[in-house]
Structure formats: structure tokens, C-alpha cells
Amino acid sequence: MESKKVSESRVEIAQIMYPEHANPAGNVHGGHILKLVDQAAAIAGARHTHRNVVTASVDRMDFISPAFIGNVIFAKASINYTGKTSMETGVRIEAECLKTGIHTHIGSAYLTFVALGENDKPTEIPQIIPETDEEKRRYEDAKKRRELRLQQAKKHRVVVQPCIVRSEKLK
Fold it and tell me: Which of 68, 86, 150, 161 is the one with CA 20 to 30 A from 130?
């Protein structure tokens, strides 16, 4: 499987915010912004793998500044790190005021996606090639976050027991 450059899957989504995206005060709902974050990350993952990808986790999302009705929201996503079947995608959210042209950083998040192959099972993905100094820094930072995620996952791992209902016990 051939490795791919970060630039080959980078994506930017732009969407204007309307009243249905906001609360009565005119602030855009955080849930709508999170939806854009997930969409941008999924598109970047699908472009990188040419597979169906599913969200495995979303790291902490802090809302740094509000977005308002009339702003254009930009969700900028790129692959930071790849494992065997999963990848970390970084997403930066910005708002542009169309009246002033000012761009404001709204927030950033890291999402982990898994690529699915036959029978919706995880499948191997191309490795990422970081080229610029910034991409290399993001790759190394993502590698550290991955180790932390794996440690946290071990703490929370639960063995799921199947629920078996026996009719004779119900009577």
C-alpha cells in the first residue's frame, strides 16, 4: 500500500450560519459546530483511505470564541497521524465576519477515525507522509496523544457479556 502526503487529503468546508443554527441570542450552537468538525474530519479520512471511515473518538473541544448568525464557519481538516487501521485528524474551526472580513479562531479538536473494509471490519490504511516542519510537529504530537488514548482505553475497557434470555426463567 502506497503512503500519501498530508496535502493529498486536506479539506476545508465553509458554511454560512443562519438563524436555524443559533440560539435566540444569535450564537451558533456548539453541536452544529461539532457536526462540521466531524464532517470535515470524515472527508479528510475518506480522501486519505478511499474507504468508509467511522469516528472512533473525539478529543476535547474547547470553544474559544463564539460564532454568530451571518458568520461563515470554516472547518479545516488534515490527517496528523496514521496507525494500521486508524488515523488522527486535526480540525481547526474559524469564523469569518462577512461585514469586517475578520477571521476568529473558534476552536480545535482531534478526532480518531477507523477505516472499514469488507464486512465493515477495520482495514489497513496508507501511512501518512508529513513533509513540512508543521506537519512533522503535528505527526509527533499526534503520536504522543495516541499513546495517551491507548492508556486511557485500557482503563475503561469492559468485556460485554451477551444478554441471553431463557423463556423458562421468565415464566
Answer: 150
